[in-house]
Amino acid sequence: MRKRWWVAGGVALLLGMGAGTAQWWSSQAGERALVRLTERLDAQPGWQASRHEVEHGWRHSSGVLRLAADAPAGHAPFDIVLPYRMRHGLLATRLDGEIELPRMDESRWQTSEAPTWHATYRTLTREMTGRLVWSTATLRGEAASRARLGAGELTLSGHVGDVRYHLHSAPSRLTRENGGILSGELDVQGRFRGDARRFHHTLSLSLAELRLLGGAPFALENVSHEADIRLDDDALHYRGEGRVGSVVVGGEQVASGRLSLSLTDVDGEAVRTLIAHMRDQAVASAENDTVAPGTVDWERLTPVLVALLQDSPRLILSSLQVSSEAFGVDSRAHGEMMLDGDDLAPLAARSVTTPAFWRHLQRRLNGRVTLRDAPPLLSLYLGLSPDTSRLEFRVSQGEWQVNGQALRW
């Protein structure tokens, strides 16, 4: 009998030691994950990330994560402060906290409560799930401008190199003295796999409406967009489809449309060079107080942009449909355009800001577009008979033709 008690006690002791070891390992893994996150944030151009008031224990930890944005000369500094609390379990660490904007003037930024966030880090799989929730907020700017941001939430899940996201927001409004924009309910979800050099990104977006306020009444309703973007060793590939359920003018529905297209043969290494160039430009702008935000060195950027063309990119219009009962239109189009990437030195020698650059680029354009059931007014405008229902647009070295006749813009 005593032997059984000794065995049971030994098993209980081993289980307790195992649980304690797992608890300690989980707390250490959660702390290391937070350290790596801080380091990655600090490595982003224009930002500094640091932790303060750190208290680390086996079961509970806490601290403050501070993100400081580089402020150009003449601009107020901008900080984001995230107090956090961590609860370490055997297989996961749970975090929660708030988001504070300590330098934001309360007369300009108003919200009923601070945004809150929750996250779970799973020790064995190194997967993270997180949720950010915010309430309606108002931002007052200069010249009587005002932005009212709708309440919403953002969820993230996955691990480094494979992240899923879902954003949902209530309607928002931007107003100025002479008008404004109303953005309806917004929903965006997608998945990003890879890194800055090679990635695959898919996303789906839906917007209830986009309405102009003031002036002539105009709105787009039931807007959606789906995209598949891939950057591999050789090229950048894009495939997308967009829809507009209704174009509304003066309260009347006048048109709807759908567009499906793809972009191929954009040199992959040139895309990576462009990404690196823009990142370096952002860092240089942040470190140099004499450079205004958004300043672009076009002389240096021009050859980087031109290099994107070296594989002769193609834009393929799979389908375009425009329908309007009000105007009796139901037209469809398809086609393909290509930019010639041979002998790019003459193009790179011209700055992208000069008319000569764009004239030279236009001469590299080749392709065709077919429009069926063309509106009679369009045919008449192009100098053709109004009963011409099929329009064949062709471009060769920048020179356009429609149904075999020279087209003058």
Helix content: 10-25%
Q: Oligomeric status of the shown chains? A: single chain
**Tally the helices: what do you get?**
6
Shape label: globular
Strand content: over 45%
Average pLDDT for all residues: 85
Succession of helices and strands: HEEEEEEEEEEEEEEEEEEHHEEHHEHEEE
Helix vs. strand class: alpha+beta
Got a strand count?
Answer: 24
Radius of gyration (Å): 28 Å
**Terminal Cα span:** 101 Å
Largest sheet: 24 strands, antiparallel
Low-confidence stretches: 1-25
Protein name: DUF945 domain-containing protein
Pfam family, one: DUF945
InterPro entries: DUF945
Characteristics of this structure?
409 residues; alpha+beta; 24-stranded antiparallel sheet; 24 strands; globular
Describe this structure in words.
It is built from 6 helices and 24 strands. The protein is of the alpha+beta class and 409 residues long. The protein has a domain of 88 residues. It has a 24-stranded antiparallel beta sheet that branches. The radius of gyration is 28 Å and the shape is globular. The N and C termini lie far apart (101 Å). The relative contact order is 0.06. InterPro entries: DUF945.
